[in-house]
Amino acid sequence: MKKKLVVIPALLVAIGGGALLAQSDYFEAASVNPKVTAGEAKKIALKEFKGDIINFDFDYDDGQPHYEIDIVKDSEKAELEVDAMSGAVRITEREAISQSTKQKTSSITPKTTNTVTISEQQAQEIALAQANGTITEIELDDDDDHGFVYEIEIRNGKMEYDFKIDATTGAIVEYKEDLED
């Protein structure tokens, strides 16, 4: 019985310490004052790879503050990193995006083309019209079933709403809501 009493506090200390270490990046990132603003980072990235920005994040991996930016142009997608301190830019990944016609197997709305015509802002407005809260994630994705879709996550308290919005028609092709514990 005494072994259990010793193991449980030790386990709790280990779990708590791990959680604190995992959060340390967030605390450090909050104290960083980038020399390159988000707007400047977008301009730098678009000089390197012209197109439309579909995803933009500030990250602090391994103590190096940088912006991660995804850009699409025609049939290509590029992922770029812009150093938040120096403005140095590098393309970390380039990939071809399918422009072929895709048909959906679901009964929601048939997909007839794979061209992005709905802006990120329009997709946000569509999702927010269905679920109140704060958008915590948005990404343009080439989905196997639906073609180009905006994947949007909205949080409101303990509720999480996940949407896939057709980037051509603006139709909600997938919707889930979950109550977080």
How do the strands and helices of this protein lay out in sequence?
Elements: H1 2-31, H2 38-48, E1 52-61, E2 64-73, E3 76-83, E4 89-96, H3 120-130, E5 134-143, E6 147-156, E7 159-166, E8 172-179
Can you walk through the features of this model?
The protein has three helices and eight strands. About 20% of the residues are buried. The strands form two sheets. Strands 1-2-3-4 form a four-stranded antiparallel sheet. The model is unreliable at about 20-30 and about 100-115 (pLDDT under 50). Strand 1 and strand 2 form a beta hairpin. With about 180 residues, it is an alpha+beta fold.
Brief digest:
The chain has 181 residues and is α+β, with helices and mostly antiparallel strands. The chain is built from 3 helices and 8 strands.
- Proportion of helical residues: 25-40%
Low-confidence stretches: 18-30, 100-113
Structural class: alpha+beta
User: Between the first and last Cα atoms, what is the distance in angstroms?
Assistant: 31 Å
Give the ordered list of helices and strands. Answer: HHEEEEHEEEE
Mean pLDDT: 76
Broad shape: globular
Total DSSP helices: 3
Strand-residue fraction? 35-45%
* Strand arrangement, major sheet: 1-2-3-4
Number of strands: 8
